[in-house]
C-alpha cells in the first residue's frame, strides 16, 4: 500500500512565482511515496506532477512501481496549468500535460525541457453544442458562448477549430471554467457549447442525445501529450538517470494497458473516475490508442504552429520560440530509452 499525505503545494511566499497565465486557484497536492520495492531506499527522489492519478494508476496496476532504484513522490493536480505552477515553483521535477500547457510553459519562461511525447489516435476533444442553439457548423459558433479551460488543451482545440473557419477567439465568448466543470456548465445551459473530453461527451450525450457534435480533434489536433522535466533535474546526473528509467517504465505501463483493457478500465475509470464499468469501457475504446512517439521536427513544428495561433489570437503577447524547449542531447537520450522500452 502507498502512504499518502496531503501537503500545500505552494506556500504564500511563493505565490509570486506562479504562472501569470494560470488563472485557476492553487490548491493542495497529494503525494505518494514509492512502494516497498528493493532498492527504493536510495537518496534520489523524483517529484512527479500527475493529473487525476493517471500516471500513478498506470504505473501501479502494471507493476512498474516495483523494485524502483529511487523514490517517487506523486503530486496530484487538476490541470496542466496547475502542473506548470508546480514546475515554476520548484515543487516538482517532472510534469505531464497536454500540448497547450506545454506551449505556455515555454511562453512563461519555465526552465523545463521536453523528455517524452505520447500521441493518441482518437477524437480528443469534441465541440458539443446544446440542442436548440442553432449551432450545426463551425461558422455557427460566431457570437456564441463556449466553455473552455483557459490555457489547457481544450483551449488549443477551440482555437484550431475556429481557425478552420477563419474565425478568432474574439469572434466568440470563451467562458473559462475548470476542466472538471465543463460538463456541468454545459448541462446548466449557461453556455451554448463546450469543448468536451471523451468522458464528458459520452456522459452528456447519454442524457442529451439531441446535442450536436460539431467537430472533434481528429481533423484539427495532433493528439500529443507532453512529459516535461526541469532543467535542474536534468542537470543532476542521478536524477537524470532516474528520469530515464521512470520514462521507460511509463512506456512499458502504457503497453500493459493496451494488452489489459478490462483491468485498466476497472482500475482507472471505475475505481478512480467513479464511472460505471460500461461507461468506462465505452470511453476507453472511443478515446483511441496511445503510444509514445519519437520527439522529432514534426512535434516541434506542431507546437510552434500552436504557439503562433495563440499569439495571433492575442492570448500570448509575443512570438514564442518553442525550439528552446527541445534539447538535442535530452531528446537523443530519452528517444533511445523509449524506443528500447516499446520494443518489449
From TrEMBL:
Q: Where is the signal peptide?
A: 1-24
Q: Which InterPro entries match?
A: ABC_SsuA_sub-bd, Solute-binding_3/MltF_N, SsuA/THI5
Per UniProt, the keywords (alphabetical) are: Signal, Transport
Tell me the compartments it is located in.
Periplasm
Question: CDD domains of this UniProt entry?
Answer: PBP2_SsuA_like_2
Q: Give the PROSITE patterns listed for this entry.
A: PROKAR_LIPOPROTEIN
- What are its GO cellular component terms? membrane; periplasmic space
What SUPFAM superfamilies has UniProt attached to this entry? Answer: Periplasmic binding protein-like II
Gene3D superfamilies, alphabetized: Periplasmic binding protein-like II
Single GO molecular-function term?
ATPase-coupled transmembrane transporter activity
Residue ranges constituting the Solute-binding protein family 3/N-terminal domain according to the UniProt record: 45-272
Task: Give the primary localization class.
Answer: periplasm
Family to which the UniProt record says this protein belongs: Belongs to the bacterial solute-binding protein SsuA/TauA family.
Q: What's the protein name?
A: ABC transporter substrate-binding protein
- Species annotation: Streptomyces himalayensis subsp. himalayensis
